[in-house]
Amino acid sequence: MAYIQERKGxxxxxxxxxxxxxxxxxxxxxxxxxxxxxxxxxxQTENAIREGxxxxxxxxxxxxxxxxxxxxxxxxLPNKPKNLRTVSAQLLWWKQQLGSxxxxxxxxxxxxxxxxxxAKNPSYKxxxxxxxxxxxxxxxLSHTFTVAIKEWGWLEDxxxxxxxxxxxxxxxxxxxxxxxxxxxxxxxxxxSNSYLYTVVxxxxxxxxxxxxxxxxxxxxxxxxxxxxxxxxxxxxxxRVVPIAGLALKELQNLSRIKHKDxxxxxxxxxxxxxxxxxxPWEKALKTAGIKNFRFHDLRxxxxxxxxxxxxxLTEIAEVLGHKTLSMVKRYAHLSxxxxxxxxxxxxxxxxx
Length: 352
Known about the structure:
The protein is 49% helix and 8% strand. It contains 14 helices and 6 strands. Strand 1 and strand 2 form a beta hairpin. It starts with a strand and ends with a helix.
């Protein structure tokens, strides 16, 4: 229920102080120069409180985007250690640009304006950000709004719902052909680094990510059963990876030389951390004459070989540890002969 009192302001002119009192809610107070404005505010506030909108709107006016990002960085991001550095940098960019705005004033149009600024202005490295990078910046900001809505009650709805994300390019598919693979493996075998050959063979035969391989511990490997158990993966789930053939043989040979109680399989000599193979890897690429190729492309190579040898997209996704098929559809064209064989087999069985 609303109560309106006429008062005199400091300038001696009349003003109207209005209070909205509803059972179970704190009293809401405001002052207006005109009584009609006081009545309108009282009516709108009562309706908003009954519909559960008022206090969320108040919180959105009380807190800035900078407040939101600071709390997210302090309370939420530490629980995501893998992405901490990257997401921190992304959110601090948004804070620098829009941190002074109240959450109620952060509109889709405003975010869209700075999305375009992000894409058009070069990064500190002097390069323009790709559409994929811009999408990551938007995703980081979007999650802060989600937390503010679901856990903190600072917002009623996220402005990100109406912000259009840039279209990302199709995933890169760069894999080694037979001659490139032979040349690279030979260069790795001749490398001064004794681990490089085993690491590359393991990447090509399992499709494991570089971080997954380099952080392997002997306790993760079951040489008898031919499998690796990845305790920590990019999607946060444990994954079992089968190992066979040359990869299994290389690990068995390495286990005879290295003590299994040393922890990491590919251990640096001077530290208790995994070895850094960046320079031996780059030298091997140069020796093999291979261009436009990254370590992550070994994973693409493994997936491509699976596709060309008849594996379905579901099977490839399972081997690589993808939750959905969207990431492996880039290899669909490589398994066309396999799909054609399935269709031909089905038609022969049905129609004879």
